[in-house]
Amino acid sequence: MEPNMDGKKLYRRTKSVCPECIKTIDANLVLDELDGKDTVLMRKKCAEHGFFEDIISRNPKEYERNQKYYHDYLTIENKDNIKDTGEGCPHNCGMCSEHKSSPCIALIDVTNRCNLACPICFANASAKGYIVEPSMDDLRRIMQHFRNIKPVPPVLLQLSGGEPTVRDDFVDIVRMGKELGFVEIMLTTNGLKMAAKNGVQYIKNMMDAGLNAVYLSFDSADSPEVYKKTRGVNLLEQKKRVVENCRKAGFKGIMLVPTIAKGINDDQIGSILEYAKKNRDVISGVVFQPVSLCGRIDNEQIRELRYTSSDLAQEIGRVTGIKDTYIYPIPATGNLTKLIAWYDFAPRFTMAAHPDCGFATVMSVDAKTGKWMRVEDWFDVDGLLKWGDKVWCDYVEKNEWPNMAEKFIGPLAKLFGEKIGNVVNQASDFAYRKAIKAYFMAGAMRYLKGVSGPVADFIPIMLSPRLETAANFFEHGNNLLVSSMHFQDVYNFDIERVQRCLVHYGTIDPDDPTKILQIPFCAMNSIHRENIEKKLAKQKVSIDPNEVTAKAKEFVEREVTGKK
User: Fold this and answer.
1) Total domain count for the chain?
2) pTM for this entry
3) pLDDT single digits (tens) 61-87
4) Residue 20 belongs to what domain range?
5) What distance in Å separates the CA atoms of residue 391 and residue 376, rounded to the nearest whole number?
């Protein structure tokens, strides 16, 4: 019997990959019943390997609302490293000419070595049997590649792995990134080194080099058993030690990053949020990551294991006591962020992700009751977003200023010379941007519910959209960023999401070491990683995951719990 590619409703047609052969195949996003409930499903069929179905959302109303937030903005002008395989996107990554956005985050794996052997690691770090570790010169070339992106380079640098801190020169890598112009540098880490007896000094050293944020894997706030399942060893006390050491060092930029696996720790979301609330003097937010499914899995297993952003949003609403909450997808603020960056001459970046990639919101803690408050308690969010859309589209995107400049500045240039004309032009451009800023802020006040509490904290961000003001909002108030980034795997892979990816890996091209490859996050982990790393590997090693886990356990007992 031919599998049903249709449903009650067809949302869109896209391209995906076959989970078996990784060839590009057609896929449909449809609404249909699953276990008696309306569900958004991806359905696809490979001529050789058959039919595949995956769950995209268990909340169709939320999914449909999300789909209106598409914002194409800046693309990359200098895409000079396209690897033409003849197979098209996503196999032509290098940067592929079909990409529709510019990266916000430059991501570099500084090593694939790791001091853990986590069963849920999407990079499968520490179990490869080979070492991939860029030299300092290679890292500089990769960073410079991102800084050279035109018209707008990423201002955020994320250093990942493996475990980045196993490199003895990691602090020097941070310093180099800052010297090359990255505004914010983030470390993705399991925190073992930060929890050690000399962890406070190590944190200070990273701060002095320019580290701004720590993305700390954090799968539970109170269950040793969860860590044994997700990381292979009980890391509960070690995670709490990282938080304490950051507090002692005066570091306030921790982001908790729980990988959520259905049936393992999807019951931990409430306790993780409460832990973040109690430690918000050093914790800026929580970035939930529904686990990517690895290995060969049939359709029935996918139904049992798949945890989606829709599941997460509903659980956040339940544990915070906020009923019927809607968490806006990442691109919802696309025009608003473009506008406030434009009028303040701030470093530009695009929030033009795909709406299925994830969501983000700001949650606040009521100072008197300790209860959670959502952003809708202080703003008319829809009204503010629509106002930002209108101002951007009517006064900036239509490019009215150059027409005005041509009409009024051109004659001055002819009369007094090009140099004078340019000075007047720049001064007038400055005045025009400031006028639009005043116009936007005057209208925005209609959508603010008062000017105290979190609203008062947020107004400076609209007035001066700098990373410094954003950091102050989270580090010195009662506010937490709560977000989700649902990374793709070969079962739910959607080429439209990849083409709008905002997080790009940078790596040396193994086929031509003079070039740098720039690959969207999910394409790297689902398609390209193994092939690239095998070619780049300079040293084969014999790695026993059980031995790695045993050493990690010994480290925790010696450095954290004090056992001998």
Assistant:
1) 3
2) 0.89
3) 999 999 988 766 666 776 665 666 667
4) 9-57
5) 21
